[in-house]
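From the shared-data thread, chain only:
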Amino acid sequence: MPEAAKLLLVSSGASALEAVRQAAPQASLRRAADTESARRLYAEDAPDVLLLDPPAAAQWLPELAEDSDAPPAIVLGAGPSPHAFACLPDAAGLAPWLDAALRFRALQSENMLIRRESERIHSGLLTSYGEAEEKYRALINDASEAIFLVDLASRAILEANRKAEELSGLPKAQLTRRSLTDVIESEGEPSLDQNWKRAQETGSLLHANAAIRPAGGGRISVEVSGSRISYAGHDVMQCICHDVTDRQRLEAQLRHQAEELERQVEERTRDLQRSNQTLVQQEKMAALGALVAGIAHDMHTPIGTITSNSDILARALVRLKDLIGGECCPESFRNNPDLMRVVNVVTDISKVNQLASDRIIAIVRSLRNFARLDEADVRSADLHEGLDSTLTLVHHELKNRITVKKEYGDIPHVPCHLNQLNQVFMNMLVNAAHAIQGQGALTIRTFREGDAVKIQIGDTGAGITPENLSRIFDTGFTTKGAGVGTGLGLAISQKIIQDHKGHIEVESEVGKGTTFTITLPVEWKTSS
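Structure, as tokens:
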């Protein structure tokens, strides 16, 4: 950035001042807190670039737009403005735009010099018309921008400099036989035709959406600015084409970087949401495990007492029957049908009590196996044990209507957090039970395939439609309706399996059922 660059900042914010200093440390920076102060500073010494906050831009830009010599203005903290050189949401990306504005100001100054020199030459400051025309042509031809002199009414090109020949790939003899719209193409709205009609009235042209297509191929993006001058006795438009291809390439790179950054932020946000949901679910499972452990501990003694008493009662009944049937027993007792009926009823009750005690013991054991509070670290575990424990806990969802078919294969123990895998199994089994309306079947199959173990859980339920199949692992997605499903079960299950270096696949056919296949590695190297 040139050391002599002069900047005028119109803003009361300290952050904007600091950002401009960082973007242009070598420039001469003056600051005004309001538009009134800025006008005084502007009148004293016109800056190369104006830096405006939104209120100052809204108040001052329409006035500056009427001045063709006004410096480019960059608005900080606002949306698009038709009169601004650039509008930035904040000052973070100011530096490249400031460089571009200073380059534009240099070109603008060169244009001003050319225009003033042209006016000076044609107003009679030079006594010799031939000398004036020669100097004018030399000034035009040596300019670093493409310059066309165009008839204001017909738009026919009257003169073109060497840079115009270079950009168009055509010699001046061919250019001067064409219309300006044959050389410069409009891109977007407003069109060059619309801007030209306005320029015929105002005497000033500014067209940003344009391109020159060289005769040899390719495309050059340009911005066209023009001023009405007198040439050879009649009014013409002096059009200067500024090559903005590099600037547009920089803008495209900045947009791409911003889009990529936004995509990364969204992806990281989704990862954090999934991790947070998993942590919440794990906390719930830890709380459930603590509750289960407390219940199991409290139930151990009474269940042991009931089981022991049931066993004593069963043996006592056997002894009682032997006594009643023995010769020492009076005849009235041996052949008393009422007594035998009571003994048989008590015997049946004892058997029922024993079965109930065994069932309670099995449920408590399954609860303890499901929670696995003592297994926070990865260890080699029996997946069949986890499946059986989970089946015991979801028995109430299956009984009397769903037949469970186990096809357990010969699989090795796998390294895992078994309590987390039990949570996955429970989600799969409960979902399968809910998918089956009325009677149905559920098949659990395990087998080894190479260096992996596979667990397949299939049901004969309603199936999943193709449009929903790709979304079932999305957080919050559920087909169970409001108040029934949370849409977290499968999302958390997928996260757990991925954390175990595995993956989940699903196959489904509407009306026939769904099969989930969980793949887990036989060996898992874990970091400490």
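The longest strand covers residues 220-231.
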